[in-house]
Specification:
Shape: globular
Number of helices: 11
Strand content: under 5%
Distance between the termini: 32 Å
Largest sheet: 3 strands, antiparallel
Length: 231
């Protein structure tokens, strides 16, 4: 925890002059998503508040916001912890992804589509794989799907899926083999991008739905064995 708090202090500049619970929650959300505070970690009010230079009340409000987003959980007489998802949580996350992401692609309208950010996420994943950084590949994969959702140009949808993707990262951090988990989706992201480039949103939707179905099975299989100790 000491090393974590030292790094967290570097984020103090992000708070600016008006330190608010929303800004603190943004910082902690990003740190949790990056695996800085792994699932099951107890978050120290004194340590984090001191590292960020914020009051206990501000920090507690930030914790409350992240608890509402299902990233943290408060345990009576024990404190606040980064949430450990259940298998049912993971399945529900993927149901939400199918509903939202496929609907975004289905509703794109006539091409051409603004795909520069989506293409950049594909390149990011390929570069991370070339560097054998498979956790970074997982991050790039989240970026790909975030940019896919952003094609809807809906702030509400972006906000909803920001929370969903942050929860998904909690599951990814439990998996002990990110290479095996993420490698298959490098090519599939490229296939979806290419379908959209040619204006084939129906084909892209089919690729995406199959992708998410396969990903659910793969993630749940690994996650169940890690969390529940199933053979």
């Amino acid at each position: 925890m000491t090393e974590q708090l030292t790094g967290l202090a570097d984020d103090r500049a992000l708070l600016g002059r008006t330190s608010t619970a929303e800004r603190v929650s943004d910082i902690l959300r990003s740190r949790i998503a990056d695996g800085y505070f792994p699932p099951g970690t107890r978050l120290s009010e004194d340590g984090i508040g001191g590292a960020l230079g914020v009051s206990r009340n501000t920090l507690r409000e930030a914790f409350r916001l992240l608890t509402h987003e299902r990233l943290l959980v408060h345990e009576l007489n024990r404190g606040v912890f980064v949430r450990v998802l259940t298998v049912e949580d993971v399945e529900d996350i993927y149901r939400t992804r199918v509903l939202v992401e496929c609907a975004v692609v289905r509703g794109l309208g006539e091409p051409p589509y603004a795909l520069d950010a989506l293409a950049a996420a594909v390149t990011e994943g390929q570069s991370a794989a070339a560097g054998d950084d498979w956790k970074a590949v997982g991050t790039a994969n989240i970026h790909f799907h975030r940019e896919l959702v952003a094609l809807a140009r809906s702030e509400r949808t972006d906000e909803l899926m920001r929370s969903v993707f942050a929860e998904l990262r909690l599951a990814f951090h439990v998996v002990d083999d990110p290479h095996a988990l993420h490698e298959p989706y490098l090519a599939r992201n490229q296939e979806i991008l290419q379908a959209l480039r040619t204006g084939d949103r129906h084909g892209a939707e089919h690729l995406l739905e199959t992708y998410l179905t396969d990903s659910l099975e793969r993630v749940v299989d690994v996650y169940r064995r890690r969390v529940d100790g199933a053979p």
